[in-house]
Write a structure and sequence with these properties.
By secondary structure, the chain is of the alpha/beta class. Helices cover about 45% and strands about 15% of the residues. The chain has a single domain, classed as Alpha-Beta Barrel (TIM Barrel), CATH 3.20.20.330. Strand 6 (about 200-205), helix 10 and strand 7 (about 240-245) form a beta-alpha-beta unit. The longest helix has 17 residues, at about 250-265.
Length: about 270
């Protein structure tokens, strides 16, 4: 959402990041949700990655609810809306994770659950302890909960072993799906492998990596197909949940969607 908004000329400055658009470009957020639905996506993440009191003040909960409404109103009936719960600090600086994140994650989880999301997505966590605190808070709402870990844009914040250990604990805590995200698409498979035998649906939504990879960040007619080539490798590994993250957009989802019917015929 954030990088796609920026590609379309919206500022999205820190610390609000994509939440800026909830104040200044709501129509653009709704339009992106519609385009992802038209591209073939069936799970749609709310633009609540930065809807916190620290960024939005007293109105934060109302704005988070509006983000849920935007997603719900823009996508097709029967599609699922996933409420995004992100790290409290920078998602690429795990050392900044606070000592007691649970209550703050619980506050957003409660707002999103009451707003009627179909699932809660605790996403882009480079700190296993904070990810587990977010999962616990989300599970306590009674809403289906997924968790997604990140090794970051340089693939160096978590190791595959770290993700394996964190994912196992997340499943024990009640996570119904486990993913990795915002890792360069060309590096994602090695971090996805530890999720294969967890016994729950698993998957990935990667970022476009370095501009030299030719996958995203700028218009490239072949970028979506390059991404889809990698995504099909994840599907062949058994991944059930496939999407895309920073530097990508609806065209990347469409490229994946176009491959899936053929893959269904080719892979037992």
């Amino acid at each position: 959402m954030g990088t796609a908004l920026m590609e379309r000329g919206h500022r999205c400055p820190p610390p609000l990041w994509s939440a800026w658009a909830l104040l200044h470009a709501r129509d653009a957020v709704a339009q992106l949700h519609r385009e992802y639905a038209q591209a073939g996506a069936t799970v749609h993440t709310t633009n609540t990655f930065r809807t916190r009191p620290e960024t939005l003040g007293k109105s934060w909960a109302d704005i988070a609810r509006q983000a849920v409404e935007l997603a719900r109103s823009a996508v097709s009936p029967g599609h699922r809306v996933a409420g995004s719960i992100a790290p409290l600090e920078d998602c690429y600086r795990p050392a900044d994770s606070p000592a007691d994140p649970g209550p703050r994650h619980a506050a957003l989880a409660k707002v999103l659950a009451e707003a009627g999301v179909d699932l809660l997505l605790c996403e882009t966590f480079p700190h296993v302890g904070e990810a587990l605190a977010a999962v616990d808070a989300a599970v306590q709402t009674g809403v289906e909960t997924w968790v997604s870990f990140t090794a970051g844009p340089q693939a160096n914040l978590l190791t595959p072993d770290d993700i394996a250990a964190g994912a196992a604990k997340a499943v024990q805590a009640g996570a119904a799906g486990v993913l990795v995200n915002c890792i360069p698409a060309t590096r994602t498979a090695e971090f996805l492998m530890p999720l294969v035998d967890l016994g729950v649906p698993f998957g990935a939504y990667a970022n476009a990596g370095h501009t030299d990879d030719g996958i995203g960040w700028h218009p490239d007619p072949d970028g979506p197909d390059r991404y889809a080539d990698l995504a099909m490798e994840w599907v062949e590994m058994g991944a059930h949940l496939i999407g895309s993250c920073c530097g990508t957009g609806p065209r990347h989802i469409a490229a994946i969607h176009d491959r899936l019917p053929r893959l269904d015929k080719e892979v037992p």
